[in-house]
Amino acid sequence: MGRPDSNFGLRPPLLTPPSPKQTQTRTSPDPWAGGVGGGARVALVEELALSFSGKATLRSDGREGGRGRQGGVEGQVLAPARARREAAGDLSAPLSLRGGARLFLVRAIAFGLAGERARGGRGGASAAAGPAHPVPAGLPLASAFTTEMATAEVIKIGKKLYEGKTKEVYELLDNPGKVLLQSKDQITAGNAARKNHLEGKAAISNKITSCIFKLLQEAGIKTAFTKKCGDTAFIAPQCEMIPIEWVCRRIATGSFLKRNPGVKEGYKFYPPKVELFFKDDANNDPQWSEEQVIAAKWCFAGLNIGQTEVDIMSHSTQAIFEILEKSWLPQNCTLVDMKIEFGVDVTTKEIVLADVIDNDSWRLWPSGDRTQQKDKQSYRDLKEVTPEGLQMVKRNFEWVAERVELLHKVQSPCRVVVLMGSTSDLGHCEKIKKACGNYGIPCELRVTSAHKGPDETLKIKAEYEGDGIPTVFVAVAGRSNGLGPVMSGNTAYPVVNCPPLTPDWGAQDVWSSLRMPSGLGCSTILSPEGAAQFAAQIFGLNNHLVWAKLRGGMLNTWVSLKQADKKIRECSL
Question: Looking at the record, which segments are called Disordered (predicted)?
């Protein structure tokens, strides 16, 4: 997928500053004109072309125009530079950005461009040097500059590792083990039997993928995603891809109905149904069984794909689907089904979620209504592709891209309040607070004694009841626990006892947390981490972000046990 257009945090070798002569204002209609002047910019471009061996592609907007042509450089930088050389009588070898390593300038491509943008295109002789030229799309403004020069930040792109129907993958020369995935402005259906250019789709797809992968990472899912790079690309760990599409379905529709005659559309699967399809365009991606995957005896990045690995991918597919399904519900959207792919990280040798998850990857029905579908199915269903039809499809994609950002927002706030009978229990309470932080739950610590100051205890309770934020109270009291029962008898909020038991009297003290009078419903959990998890499970009923972390934790626990079992079996052979 190959074109970044924002900050990568990578700096090039120090470039020689332009001479005063080079920084004089140019009057030629240079697309980069403005600020310091065209000469400095051309000097920078030429120096970059000479400084890096290999094929250097400088993309002003990072796009390839969606029609397979190199965008940006040839028409906007090299042509003006060549014209200047010819005008000066320079008949030497033509300026060319050819060779071995692709180069992307992603901040201020040249001195002065940032200065022009910072001034809003006004002021100085350069503003009147010629006709105004729009700043090429996708070039973000450098974050800081001292004079009219910006510090260029570059990333060196190596060979193309893969090109698919909607993306390209490039190696990163300065970042071994990482790759750049670049989306295309192309939409396809039926294994590319139908394909069209759709302006802006690359940015939409990249935005959706970046948001979804971040959401899953926060939930604890291992993903091949490092950071978003501009509008249409992101950096990811390099993976050897496992050629299986994993499909997870909640509702029967689409190809499932064709392959399973008699099943009515709308049939719901509990749990979600997982299917496997071998990636083989020539044979229309045939459905495979888990046994076929195992029989293939694949090895990727040194990892043999056997029963354990297939089980991990199957369970991960279900967990990922459930997390995203839960995340879309607050937006009143039903995630019907989705497809994902896994790869083996070449560095860690772990199976990770890879490729992309964008609007091509799922069926999404607002209000659970198929007629309102916002996914790629609206493109598949077009009897004839027309400009109007493509605009309708694009509006659907934009609708999803706008709402996918909302998946990161908390719909229902929550809070844990830990009440300790004495500061001597602070260490125990700090463990609860830390565990709450792992679920993204705010936690407050208070000191109060239900035995020595019951009025103050009830005053604290009323304080938290009055602001309307859903709260779980955790009572931490050793010896005779009065906090938990008093709180439980005077609030409708959940109360959890988490007594800090000691070896000497712990066996006796615990009964003050276990045997409650009638009418009290506080639970007792001895582990600080367990108390935080129980609170998270309560909040997770209405907070999809907390629920996602719980679900991700369940998956990781299952995977670690599965891997431990495999290791033990291998050692005993």
Answer: 1-37
- Average the pLDDT over each of 41-50, 380-389, 407-416 and give the range with the smallest value: 41-50
Task: Examine the pLDDT at 43 and tell me if it is beyond 60.
Answer: no
Distance of CA 430 to the CA centre of its chain: 31
| Most confident residue range from 9-13, 73-77, 140-144 | 73-77
Which segments of the chain belong to CATH 3.40.50.1970? 415-542
Tokens for 136?
């090429």
DSSP state of 413: -
Nearest to 341 by CA among 561, 164, 171, 159: 164
CATH 3.30.470.20 maps onto the chain at 212-408
Instruction: For residue 248, give the H/E element and its range.
Output: strand 244-251
| Residue 114 clears pLDDT 80, i.e. is over it | no
Calpha distance 434→440 (Å, rounded): 10
Q: Give CA angle at 309 (306, 311), nearest 5°.
A: 105
308, 559, 571 from 566: Cα distances, Å: 7, 11, 9
SS3 197: strand
Identify the H or E element spanning 426: helix 426-438
**Residue 39: pLDDT above 50?**
no
Phi and psi at 500, nearest 5°, equal -85, 85
φ/ψ of 263, rounded to 5, equals: -80, 130
List the one residue out of 269, 274, 247, 265 whose CA is nearest residue 369: 265
How far apart (Å, rounded) are the C-alpha atoms in residues 340 and 355? Answer: 8
Band (pLDDT 50/70/90 cuts) for residue 88 is low
The more confidently predicted of residues 462 and 112 is: 462
pTM: 0.76
Alpha-carbon span 329 to 161, nearest angstrom: 37
282 versus 77: the higher-pLDDT residue is 282
Sign of CA dihedral 335, 337, 339, 344: positive
Structure token digits, residue 188: 């396809």
Instruction: Please provide the DSSP assignment of 334-377 as one string.
Output: EEEEEEEEEEEETTT--EEEES--STTSEEEEETT-GGG--STH
Q: Does domain 415-542 have CATH number 1.25.10.10?
A: no
Omega before residue 528 within 30° of 0, cis:
no
- Looking at residue 192, its pLDDT comes to 80
- Give me the sign of the Cα torsion angle 303, 315, 264, 366: negative
Tokens representing 91?
A: 């008949």
Mean pLDDT over residues 315-343, rounded?
Answer: 98
> Residue 233 contacts by C-beta under 8 Å, 6 or more apart in sequence?
1, 2, 3, 4, 5, 62, 180, 181, 182, 183, 206
Phi and psi at residue 304, to the nearest 5°:
-75, 135
Residue 250: how many other CB atoms lie within 10 Å? 21
Which homologous superfamily is 212-408 in? ATP-grasp fold, B domain (3.30.470.20)
Diameter over CA atoms, the chain: 100
pLDDT of residue 2: 39
Q: What residues are paired with 445 via a beta bridge?
A: 418
